[in-house]
Structure formats: C-alpha cells, structure tokens
Amino acid sequence: xxxxxxxxMVGTMAxxxxxxxxxxxxxxxxxxxxxxxxxxELGSGTFRLRKIFVxxxxxxxxxxxxxPKNGTAGIVYKNMPNKERLLLxxxxxxxxxxxxxxxxxxxxxxxxDRNQKKYKATYEYARAKIExxxxxxxxxxxxxISMGYVFVGKSPYFCxxxxxxxxxxxKGDTQIEYGGxxxxxxxxxxxxxxxxxxxxxxxxxxxxxxxxxxADDDYDSGxxxxxxxxxxxxxxxxxx
Length: 240
Hints:
Protein name: GLPGLI family protein
Strand content: 35-45%
Order of helices and strands: HEEEEEHEEEEEEEEHHE
Structural class: alpha+beta
Shape: globular
Number of helices: 4
Strand order of the largest sheet: 2-3-4-5-7-8
Number of strands: 14
Signal peptide: 1-19
Helix content: 10-25%
Radius of gyration: 33 Å
Largest sheet: 6 strands, antiparallel
Distance between the termini: 6 Å
Keywords: Signal
Region (Disordered): 216-240
C-alpha cells in the first residue's frame, strides 16, 4: 500500500495557523506605579497649636504630602519635641472638605455661635492615622478625628480635633498612646489645606508621576502565502 505525504502541506498549514493567531499590538502603554515614587508635596500653609502650659496659640508651618504607598495625603508639621503627620485617606479628605464648606457657609451667614469658647464637634467625623516621633515616625495610632470650630477672642477658628488615642504598639509593658491635639485654622489657612487635599490636586500629582512606556514594535508582514515548491523538490514517501 502506498501513502503519499507531501511535506510542503505540513509547513503551509502551520504558517497559516500562525498568521491567524497574530496578536494586536498596543500602540502606547501608560502606567502609574503607585508605591514606586517618592512622596509629592501638594501644598503648604500655616495653622496654630495651643502652647503647652500657656493659654495662647502658636503658629506652625505645615506641608501636605501625597504618600503613594497607601494613597493618603498627610498634614506634616512639627510639634516639639516631635514631628507629626496626620494621614487622611480619600474618605477622611472628603470629610474635612465637607466640614470646611459647612463652616464657611455658617461663617458667611452669621450662624456661628459666639459663645462657643470651647471646641465642639459641629461637623463631620472620619478615621485617620497619626504618626509621630522625635526623629522618625516610629509611633502611630488610628484616631477618629472630628471637625468643628471655636472662638478665640472674636475670631472663629475652623478646627480639626485629634483625640487622645491608644496605639496597638507597646513599649515594654506600657501601651503607647497619642496625647491628642487641636489644630486651629483661620478661613484662609483652612482654604490652603482643603485646596491641597482636593481630589483634583491628588489626581494631578499622580498624573505628574506617570511613566509612559514606548510603543511595542509592530510586526506586520501581511498574510502568509502558500508557495508550492518546485515539483522536483516535492518528496513522495512510499511505504511498502
């Protein structure tokens, strides 16, 4: 019995199959490597803290930094002997902005209570993270912050309250605890803060860190064509 096998047919079929599976090539790839770039400064300003053992306010400079590893925006400042940073995720940033807008509306409509000489949580609450330490941010806690206002003299300050909060950390047998703080902002100072933590500002900062990769090489050779070998090169296989 004779079986004729044309080897050229095998090669042709394989080539046609390869052409059918040729993938489409992306022309451009844009990626954001969150966690791969350094913190980005979003803005800066000044607020006030109450001096220890003295009943008066002290101006403190702050910067707002975007931390890509966890997507938070941090209010970074010095509170001697420590440096501190209050980290706000998207929900916490929204709560601060919503509270500021409500405070501003109350201010302009003369609805603030002049008798409010002690802080009162008038607006929103949010979960945040506070980190502190004399040299590094070695201690942390997860306080539930609140926003409100208080009158100091004739001036109503927008405030962010960071309550006393126990940490999950321990130092020996002692559980670490954040002592609490109240951040005082004038209207203009609060606007500097909310402008820096606005979602548009966050997205702009992320866009500035985008890495644009070059386009992949496109391999386009058209359709594969069947080409018969010369008759004398076709090989018959004859099986006895």
